[in-house]
Amino acid sequence: LRSQYGHKRYAVQQQLEEESRLEKTDAIITDVDEDSLASIDTTTQSLQTTDAIITDVDEDSLASSNDTTTQSLQATSEQTIPPEFYPILALCFCVTLLSALDRVAMSIAILPISSEFGYSETIKGQISSAVSYGYGAAILPIGLAVSVVSSRLLMIIGVCLWSLATLGTPIMAELSSNGNILLPLLSIRAIMGAAEAVVLPTMQRILANWVPPEKKATTLAIILSGFQLGTVCAYLVSPWLMDQMSGLDGGAADIEGWRGMFYIYGVAGLVWLLPWYFLAKDSPSANNNIGSAEDCTETLVNTMIEDDASLVFQECLVESDAGEITKDNAGGAFKRIQDIQLLVQSAPWSDFLRSRGVWGMMLAHGAKNFELYNLLAWTPTFFNQQYGLNTKESALFSIGPSICGMIGGLTAGNLADFMLVKLSSGDSNNGIVTTETRTNVRKIFQSVALFGPATCLFLLSSLPEKATTAQILLGGAVGLQAMDAAGFGAATQEKAGERWAGLLYSLTSLPGVMIGSISVSVTGQILDMMSSEEGSGWTTVFQLNSMVCVVGAFCFLFLYDSKKEFD
């Protein structure tokens, strides 16, 4: 019994101990649960606090982002041309007009000059080409000088020099006629051409400082229209001036007043200097949102228009603490010269010379200039000698080809862009213009720009009986050659990236300027050698020009492609 009771007692104790452990465990679990619930409550409160903070931060960030975006959009919309630039724009237009007047004037004045002094055709060719030789020799040095010297000051020096050269042309012509030594007259004309080389690079620098990028094309078109208007005005105004100045300018009463014409054009340039001196500035006094230094790349650039082989070192402009625009590389003129030297040394010169496309562009440009320089210099003389027109009539007949050139240049760019869009939309490249398509468009327009004039000049070599027929053929030649704006004129930017496009255009332009200048002299020599046979000199001149255009066209067709080579 005692043993059985002991076992039962032991079992009851075990049960009581187990119940006690369970109660303790429940108490611990209850404590843990209460602590966990408290911790969860604390965590929930923390999360709620964090959400509130994030919400505040998001609202602040969104507000800040919206403010920044709004300010950025406002800044973009405020990129306008400063009002103080408009007088400078008007003066730039006037100076391009004066430049064209002074250059074209000699092609008209050469008729009475050669009649008075008995100049041969060879001498007339040398006088007419002297301006181009001076221009060609100066364009690269002046283009680089713009990066070191004030554009405003350089323009003053250039316009003053060419105006004085224009004023001095009659005096040098007198000196040259006395001893039959042409050096004084050729020198003064070459100085004038060299001085006129300041126009395009200085204006390019001024536009970079004053005009927002999205308005630069329109502004440049306005300025360059002065060249076109000046050419037309030279043909219209120059004969009238010579009539008015006859007998009043130091020449005989029965001789056209070509001296007075040069005097008036020279004085006009000097008068232009007065408002330029007081109104022109290199850059605005404050940063009018012209551009950002972050978007600027230091490179050698040029206008890629006409025969501008000049180069401008494009530098970055930043806003200083004083609110004035200063150059990013503010180490002074010597530092900028070093930068130019390094950039020129790093240029891919050997790759340029090995490129078939570059040679195609260079030869096409040379062929174009061979023809165009001849027509600009000799057209009034052709009408005078072949059709017996006087100076005024010859000048009036020369206006038509100039107008055709203006129309051709404007048409070429728009038509080429239209063709590229249409051809790319028909390709399987999602509207992307392929290299092959672009190459074919450039070849089409360059073929028109050289084969077209070649045909017109070959027909003109038969010397049609009517002056109006000759005028139509000359107008066709000049108008069609202007199509090269969509040929080699646009090819440079496809062959090279932004860094080397300007340098490449200069490389292909400078030989063209020299070839054009030589062609004017060659024409005079041909006319002298064949003067014994009536009309045969002009027949040979036009046939030679036609042949040169054909050779240049084939060179471009066989050598050029639009594949980018120079980045």
Secondary structure: elements and pairs:
Elements: H1 2-77, H2 86-117, H3 121-145, H4 151-179, H5 183-196, H6 199-210, H7 213-245, H8 258-279, E1 299-301, E2 312-314, E3 317-319, E4 325-327, H9 333-345, H10 349-354, H11 356-387, H12 391-426, H13 435-460, H14 467-481, H15 488-495, H16 498-529, H17 536-559
Antiparallel strand pairs: 1-2, 3-4
Helix pairs in contact: 2-3, 2-4, 2-7, 2-8, 2-11, 3-5, 3-16, 4-5, 4-6, 4-8, 7-8, 7-12, 11-12, 11-13, 11-14, 11-15, 11-16, 11-17, 12-13, 12-14, 13-14, 13-17, 15-16, 16-17
Question: How would you describe what is shown here?
Answer:
The structure is a single chain. The protein is mostly helical. Helix content is 77%, strand content 2%. It has 17 helices and four strands. The strands form two sheets. The protein has a two-stranded antiparallel ribbon with strand order 1-2. Strands 3-4 form a two-stranded antiparallel sheet. Strand 3 (317-319) and strand 4 form a beta hairpin. Helix 2 packs parallel to helix 4 (151-179) and helix 15 packs antiparallel against helix 16 (498-529). The longest helix is centred in the N-terminal third of the chain and has 76 residues, at 2-77. The termini are far apart.
